[in-house]
Amino acid sequence: MVKMSTPEASLGFKAPPFSIEFGGSVYSLSSVAGPNGTLVMFICNHCPYVKQIVRQLSKDVKLMQESGIGAVAIMPNDVSSYPEDSPEKMADFAREYSFSFPYIYDAEQKVAASYGAICTPDFFGFDKKLELQYRGHFMDLTSGTHDLLDAMLEIAKGRKVSRKQKPSIGCSIKWK
């Protein structure tokens, strides 16, 4: 496992469109976008950093969705190197943690590359114009502040994110 942290965000970065066929459905940026903002998450099953937060993440995303934030989780890893991230195990993972959002597989790794994702977890919070307003960590585990949730709720209200954004730390994406 290689520990990575996200770079400083270029706020205002426009969300790249995508279309991924997965599990018999087609998911696109427009199909997952919410009326008040959109959260694009890059996660996986095997990373201990994801495992540490996933239960709370599932709860927090439900609160975001109640405020009009759309959400999608994208698994970007090469499953031939990490079979525990396979589509079958992704479905089990989503069920186990009661995901209320699509968890889809970026088999060609094009979406992760277009967003500049570098680790799991990596969070991209966009406003209703699909302009980046937050790229940072999920929460401060020492203080218990829910930075991602707080930021996305501010975005849902049309406000700028007031808290300083701290980088997300996670496992490197397993590129082909």
TrEMBL record:
CDD domains: PRX_like1 (cd02969). InterPro entries: AhpC/TSA, PRX-like1, Thioredoxin-like_sf, Thioredoxin_domain. It comes from the Bacteria. One of its GO terms (molecular function) is antioxidant activity. Residues 9-157 form the Thioredoxin domain. This is Redoxin domain-containing protein.
